[in-house]
Amino acid sequence: MDRIRLAIWTFMLLLFSVTIWGDEIYFRSLGVKDGLSQPSSIAIWQDRLGRIWLGNNAVNCYDGVSTKVIRLSEYFPSLEDANIHNFCGNDSTLYLLAENNLICIDLQMRQPFMPEITATAICYSDNQLYTVEGHSLYRCNVRSGEKEILFSDERYVFTLITPIDDNQFWIGTTTGVLRVDLTEKRIITTCFQEENITTQFLDSESRLWLSAKSGLAAVVSLNGESIVLNDSGGSSIPYIHCFTEDTRGIIWVGTLAGLYRIEMKTNGIPEIMSNQPYMAETSITALFTDRQGNLWIGPYYGDIRYGNIDLDDFKCFYSDEKVEDRLHGTVIGSMAEDKEGNLYVASEGSGINVLNKNREVIRHITKTTHRLPDNKIRALWYDEQTDNLFISVYKNGLYVLDRKTDRIRQIDFSFFDSASQLTIEDIVPYRDMLVLPSTQGIFKLDRENLYTSYLLDDSLLQQKCSGNIRTVYIDDKDRLWVSSLEEGLFSVDLKSQKVISLYGDGLQKGSRIPSAVNSICGDSRNGLFMSTLNSGLLLYNEERNDFSSYREHDHFLLSDVCYSVTRSFYRNLVVTTDKGVSILDMSVKKKPLSAFHIPLSNLPAPLSLSGDCGIYVSPMDRNVYVGTICGLFSFNEQNLNRPGRNYSLFFSSISVNNQLLTPANSDFLQQDITFSRKIKLPYNLNTISLTFSTSNYLLSNYGQYEYKMEGLDELWITTSNRTITYSSLRPGKYNLIVRELDNPQNEVQLEIIIMYPFWLSWPMILLYVCGTISIIAWLVWFNKTKTRLMLSLEMKKREVEQMDKLNRDNQQFLTNISNEFRKPLTVIIAILNNIVADAAVVAGKNRIGKVLKQVVYLQGLITRLQTFNREEQEDVAFSFENPVCDAESPVEEVIETEDNTLYTMLIIDSDSEIRASLKETFSFAYRLIEAEDVKEGYLIALRELPDIILSEIDMADGSGIELCRMIKSHVDTLHIPVILMTYQPSPEQQIQSIRSGADDYVVKPFFMDLLQHRCNSLVRNSKRILSRYIKQKEEQEYVPLLATNVQEKRLLDTATRVLEEHLEDPEFDIAHWAKCMGMGRTSLFNQIKMVTGMTPNDYIVSFKMDRAKLLLSDESCCPIAEVAYRLGYSDPIYFSRTFKKHVGVSPMQYRKNMLVSQKEEVS
């Protein structure tokens, strides 16, 4: 697997890097996978935004993210998609040649048009387009299609044109190159008249570089002096296609056989840097240097390459065990540098790699070459004083390499019992000794006599410092910082050898740091920094003895997973993370100002980092060396941190409601979104997706951005994605700002206006305002009119209310007087009736009868007087005629039970005199029970179960109507007749009495004989119905009286039998009952409801409650829970609630009442 991995890494690095004349250049590629129409290019040009335009079989525009293709044949059917070359232009228009036809592309509209102009070559200078064709040089007006001849010479055929300045041009011809002055209309210089010039390029020093069809290559100065680089036939450089100049003044030459580089020496003589070209297998047809200094290479066939030899200052070393002068090893760890500049690089399994000061691998120190015990190297440290290299070998202790003799010897750890298995994890210099942390503890080594011993004298403290040590560090105050897996982070005073503080590891309870520490660097003056496992970078605050953190979300780090931290040569912090390297600007002590990042994804090869990878800062070449998996890369932070020159940030596309918007397909874009600063959209096109791009093509580009929609967002949003989407924007004005995270000054803005719908437009708003004002004015007028009317009505209402109040007061007075009269009259009538019944002499009876007749007449008058107000309102005639009254003696009728005992009457009235009168009247016919209030009456009714109840309606603790409702709703008392009495009769009260179930309603005062007859009739009818019910119940087991025919009786017999059989089954339900009855649930429901008037569920509950009362009345007194189980209830509490709901009392209270009743019957 390791060999396969190494092979893959090697292939990727070779694919993206190449060494040219000692310089390591890393190119990225651009091909069909990036949207290019064809893997080739014969022309390259950059517009003012920094976008790269490429010509092949189509016009390609690369914006750093994607490539947009313009095929000319789609606009001009007469043209073929081939030979698109000779790009030039200005800020608004790109000019090119398709074969010999001039094509113009409006950059703001991204729309091509073709004037009727042909040319052999074109150039753009001083805001003018110049062309050559045949024997002439022209100035063209592309809008009108006209060409103006500026210079002509029949001796030459013009093929190339290059502007100089001051209205002068270099013109390449089939017979040499001409320098022409258009002001004077003459040829100033003529060179190489026997050569057919095919390529020419003007460098920054106004030197003309040219090549001819014969293979000749030369450079010509303005004064006409020429230097031949290549003779005819191309002896030095093969056939040349193109030239370009980089930011360092070096000329790059694209040829038939690859890429060459020419450097002008101080003596003015050009020198070809090497005879071996880059990309020797490829014909280079186009070269271009953009404003950042990136070199773009267009091959005749193959991907376009681009890179920056100046700013992308990376140097990569990759592992390859098969090649001697390459790095060996999978994991590149600790590094050290000797005084001669040689770099020693430790590896995990391949020994030590040695690189010279030119950073060429010169040798390897391994088991084979130097008799190391193992090739797994854990740590390296170079002692400049003794010129010794200390080497930690996995499970073999410490070795020292004497560079003078190139011999290795082992350090003696004989005082330690397990020295043979000792692994030194790190080598930390401290004064004149080396501190050696290991799993068995921390040791020290005297650098002069190489004597080893324990660092700490205290055995307990030494044990605390053993185990899996992540890192150790000794600061400038002689504090030993130890981070271990078992103990977390803690500090020890090396002078007193006592623990100063414990900080934990983020997992332990009471930890003072958020995560385990992997690496430590710094001092008390400039700050002590610690990299953590997953909490970023910590800064130790010595005054408060706590830590402040710098995290990924603060933009100081690429990731919170940090491996190593160290100081660079320029005193900045270099932190390795799982996503790359972050460099923190520490120009202010103890506080990073900003950060520069090197993402692993931007490196020329797909490298990765781990906790075992090392980092080293060279004091000689000032570079930072970072070990990786299967490789090593270095950089100079100052070179990388230089801001790239001349690049832009711009919007490249916009989609609205998932539809791409362009000037061609939309009226909302007057020009391409790249050049737009404002866009107006209707209210229903409010889901916007914008893509932005940058013309920063450097490998060191961080690629992190932040954006904010002013008018919507309050905070900046960080992103690495180049697409921003906002959904369902409300109508209004917004301003979208996008800027680079590490360079906030570089930003792009777009004003977005979501227009209001027409019903929210200004005319409509004005209409709404006018309408609202009109409505408000009408409401004001209406309210004033209404107020005046209301005041008038209020006065009339008050008058009516005063009259009504007076009438109510009169009526209340009459009612109160009537009630006061009624009470004594009721008592008088009762007494007179009793006297008449007891009188022995007829004459006495007649006289008392006359008195009684007048009393009854007086009662009628009082009744008439009480209802006077109502009758007056109803226009009923009020009469004081004498009521018909029969004052004969009342008939004393006694009704008895079957066992010749009297029936029981319960009299409920709060007035004791009324109770006494009624008791005197009914004492001969009934066994009388009295109650003073509703509560007492109800309890007596449940206990005594009287045969009839007389109750007053108006009592202090409640209403007799409510008492009647309670009695009629209870299963044990619902058959008892109830007569309600009142002093204040009214139709409403009478209706309520009937609805509550009252059997009769009488008004005081009343005729005692009539009341007696009513009571007797009600008792007699009640007993007759009850006896019939009991008789049928004895004959038929629980068959209701509602069974009026044989079919209904048979149905109820079957239903009762099924219920009896499943009485104790708690799972028995309606579905089971219907199944046992042989019918469906709906049919059972309809038939039971029709016969009994109850639903099946109510019928089951009623049946079980009757059985419960029988069981509770049984003298055996089984527990309530047993009664519940015997009736099929699995929950006794639920049974008790159901019983109380249907019977009115709890099962326990019912049992007590029954026992009391049985005792009274026995007594």
TrEMBL record:
UniProt xrefs under InterPro entries = CheY-like_superfamily, HisK_dim/P_sf, Homeodomain-like_sf, HTH_AraC, HTH_AraC-typ_CS, Ig-like_fold, Reg_prop, Sig_transdc_resp-reg_receiver
Residue limits of the Response regulatory domain?
A: 904-1019
What's the domain of life for this entry? Bacteria
Which UniProt keywords are listed? DNA-binding, Membrane, Phosphoprotein, Transcription, Transcription regulation, Transmembrane, Transmembrane helix
Q: What is the name of the protein in this document? A: Helix-turn-helix domain-containing protein
**Membrane spanning residue stretches:** 759-782
Q: Which residues form the signal peptide?
A: none
Answer whether the UniProt record assigns the keyword Membrane to this protein: yes
**Residue intervals of the HTH araC/xylS-type domain:** 1053-1153
| PROSITE patterns xrefs | HTH_ARAC_FAMILY_1 (PS00041), HTH_ARAC_FAMILY_2 (PS01124), RESPONSE_REGULATORY (PS50110)
Record the organism.
Parabacteroides segnis
Task: Identify one Pfam family in the record.
Answer: Reg_prop
